[in-house]
Amino acid sequence: MTVDLVIGLAAEAIKVTLLLAAPMLSVGLVIGLIVSIFQAVTQIQEMTLTFVPKIVAVMVSLIIALPWMINLMITYTQKLFQTIPMYIR
User: Fold this and answer.
1) pLDDT (tens digit, 9 = 90+) per residue, 39-67?
2) Alpha-carbon dihedral sign for residues 62, 67, 72, 77
3) Which domain holds residue 69?
């Protein structure tokens, strides 16, 4: 196993991790921004108002993105298993 191979594996793992987290994080960011603007406009400073919409939106985005996420993980795992002989040289 060379250094380049290890760096390539780590880079691919980080890329897949970021792609898996991106839908939920981006939805949470957008909903948080909308709720913050709403709170600033109406001057309602209720702490629980920020959490409930984010939780619901992240759950909905997870349900919507789940097939794509599973497909991405399966593809990554299959590629990883298919290249095992190259790793043990």
Assistant:
1) 889 888 888 888 899 999 999 999 999 99
2) positive
3) 3-87
